[in-house]
Write a structure and sequence with these properties.
Order of helices and strands: EHHHEEHEHEEEHEHEHEHEEEEHEHHE
Number of domains: 2
Structural class: alpha/beta
Largest sheet: 6 strands, parallel
Number of helices: 12
Helix content: 25-40%
Strand order of the largest sheet: 10-9-8-11-12-13
Shape: globular
Distance between the termini: 31 Å
Strand content: 15-25%
Length: 339
């Protein structure tokens, strides 16, 4: 059995979803209540591969909300992730993906140093961040969507916003080894980490977002932002491809303008309907077919019987592992969302 650990995008979103799922006592409460709410299994899942193989899984709602990253609630956010992992393990799930901020919190606050949750010794090989599959899918979206919208990738300037993170650094490695656009611009909050990535891959320019945007033909957004940000679309080139791989989304509102193309990054479509309801409540356009690539990674590991933390640790994703997970992704009927 596979598992998914997720969270909703805001307190308002959580209240709405709780009422839809029949948890009225959650839907009428404020942030303090959600800070103390335990993890809950809110969905049972059945997935069928195009090979005919069938697997089952559970969705564990961590009850974490991005608002918990503000003020003095960091320890609450950490506790949410650890409790959800302990709950998944207690249920006997073989491999569980940490979705959204769950993996970011785990890595940023080094929760691997806290293996004991009450009476449960966490077995970290049962968990994966799903970031390898997410990075692979985003790279496929860069390649396929640039072709779709008439951007010559070999002559393009590509900006990776969040390039020092796990997914961002993996995208940079892929572009360096597999595509090599004309220019690669590296953007993140910490310039020191960007220079480390630049030294590793052997090229790329470290710039601020304000400096990078006007030069960019393609922007990959994979920064860890608790809420979206506004950008001045008048600064953007035409055409310009924006691949928003954040959850919650990095871009705070719908970006409009002729020649500006926004793609929901890190999303895959399955060839067959998935029996679940969770993607409907996170507003996927086709909830029976579309899902986060990080969640799909745990499905792929279950299909293959690879019960290991395939994606684990900051900036450890290699191009070889992206190709490996990409191969089984295609094998079982997943493809990147490109429109």
């Amino acid at each position: 059995m596979f598992g998914l650990i997720g969270h909703l995008t805001s307190l308002d979103h959580a209240k709405t979803v709780a009422k839809r799922l029949g948890y009225d006592e959650y839907g009428d409460q404020g942030l303090e209540f959600w800070c103390s709410a335990p993890p809950q299994v809110v969905d049972e899942i059945k997935v069928t591969s195009v090979t005919g193989q069938e697997i089952r899984g559970l969705y564990v709602e961590s009850c974490f909300l991005p608002e918990m990253l503000a003020g003095n609630r960091i320890k609450t956010a950490m506790r949410k992730v650890l409790n959800a992992m302990a709950h998944a393990q207690k249920l006997g799930i073989n491999i569980t993906a940490l979705g959204g901020f769950s993996s970011i919190i785990f890595e940023n606050f080094q929760l691997g140093q806290i293996p004991q949750v009450r009476n449960i010794q966490l077995e970290f090989q049962r968990f994966t961040t799903g970031n390898t599959h997410t990075a692979y899918i985003i790279c496929q979206q860069v390649e396929q969507c640039s072709q779709k919208y008439g951007i010559d990738l070999s002559q393009a300037t590509v900006t990776v916003c969040g390039a020092s993170g796990d997914i961002g650094s993996a995208v940079c490695r892929w572009l360096t080894c597999r595509q090599h656009p004309k220019e690669l611009l590296l953007v993140a909050r910490s310039p020191d980490k960007l220079y480390q990535i630049q030294g590793e891959i052997g090229w790329g320019k470290v710039l601020s977002l304000a400096e990078a945007l006007p030069q960019s033909d393609i922007v990959v957004w994979v920064a860890s932002l608790p809420k979206g940000m506004d950008i001045d679309v008048s600064q953007l080139k035409r055409p310009c491809l924006l691949i928003d791989g954040g959850y919650p989304k990095n871009l705070s509102h719908s970006i409009e303008g002729e020649g500006i193309y926004v793609v929901n990054g890190g999303i895959v479509e399955h060839s067959l309907d998935i029996d679940w309801k969770i993607m409907d409540i996170v507003n996927m356009a086709i909830p029976t077919r579309q899902l986060f690539a990080c969640f799909a990674e745990s499905m792929l590991l279950e299909f293959e019987g690879w019960y290991t933390n395939f994606s684990w640790g900051r900036n450890q994703i290699t191009v070889a592992k992206m190709e490996q997970i990409g191969q089984v992704s295609r094998k079982h009927g997943f493809r990147p969302l490109v429109g």
